[in-house]
Amino acid sequence: MATLAGAGTTTRPVAAPGHASRLTRERTRYAWLFMAPMLIVLALVAAWPLGRTIWFGFTDANLSDLSIAEFVGVANFVYLLQDPDWWQAFWNTVRFAVISVTLETILGLGIAMAINANMPGKGLMRTAVLIPWAIPTIVSAQIWAWMFNDVFGVLNAMLLSVGIIDKPVAWTANPDTALWAVILVDVWKTTPFMALLILAGLQMLPSECYEAARVDGIHPLRVFWKVTLPLLRPALMVAIIFRALDAFRVFDAIYVLTGNNKSTMSMSIYARQQLVDFQDVGYGSAAATMLFLIIAVFTIVYMTVARVGQED
């Protein structure tokens, strides 16, 4: 160990370069050692099924007998990219993801700031907000399906009573309203998740900035745009990427509310239809592989843009 000494100062030990690099290597080795069990489990439960799905995408495998699958190259992918139903499912998913994540981010930010403020009853409010998130998606989707019912649904009854509509509307069966109905359910269900992530970010912001702004008499709206949002950007990035990834692979809420309706069919439902209903494992696996690639590309692009934005 080397030492540094100064006149009138206390000496302190400084690690020699060779010792520091050796310590770093040991820490890295132990880190990989501790991560090994998790990586093995992850490979078994994720990598192997994913690899098998990708392989099936290049075959003509059928659900009745997977053992007789034959390699067909990229034929499944070529046909997939020419299928108008796939492209409709793709754009349905994109519209659902963009609209729902945008609304959830805005509403989640507002709820998080309200909960974070010094106000009476915020603990009770925090608990109440989490109730929709605590309800399983299948259950919440089925509850909303009954509420959307055109014969005895409470939503139609309320709108008829105030004169907004003059006859019952089949919200989940009408192509003009089905996707919006699904988005409403998803926003109601998932906004608390966004609010919770953003609240965690708000509680980590330094209070000194707000005290200085209060002393200088800066308007709260200006503080929000110039202080809160820039400091909250990392938390917002994490919340948005988590929700966007979840929205791109949405299945349960849409399937419960609208089934295989083409006006709302997502890419996950399309892949499930090919795999289960049509028993075409090869083509369905190609659709699932394409969904995986789309999500991977979106994640890489988003993280790259976010990293560049942080460096600027």
Description:
This protein has about 300 residues and is an all-alpha fold. Helices cover about 70% and strands about 0% of the residues. The protein has 13 helices and two strands, in the order E-E-H-H-H-H-H-H-H-H-H-H-H-H-H. A two-stranded antiparallel ribbon has the order 1-2. Strand 1 and strand 2 (about 10-15) form a beta hairpin. Helix 8 packs across helix 10. The longest helix is centred in the first third of the chain and has 40 residues, at about 15-55. It is flat. The protein starts with a strand and ends with a helix. Mean pLDDT is about 85; it is low at about 1-10.
Measured distance between first and last alpha carbons: 40 Å
Low-confidence parts, pLDDT < 50 over ≥5 residues? 1-10
Work out the helicity level.
Answer: over 70%
Total DSSP E strands: 2
Order of helices and strands: EEHHHHHHHHHHHHH
What are the salient characteristics of this protein?
two-stranded antiparallel ribbon; mainly alpha; disordered N terminus; 312 residues; 72% helix
Concise description?
This protein has 312 residues and is an all-alpha fold.
Q: Which helices and strands occur, and which strands form pairs?
A:
Elements: E1 2-4, E2 12-14, H1 17-56, H2 75-82, H3 84-116, H4 122-129, H5 131-134, H6 137-148, H7 154-161, H8 178-202, H9 207-216, H10 220-248, H11 252-258, H12 267-277, H13 281-311
Antiparallel strand pairs: 1-2
Helix pairs in contact: 1-13, 3-4, 3-8, 3-10, 6-11, 8-10, 8-11, 10-13, 12-13
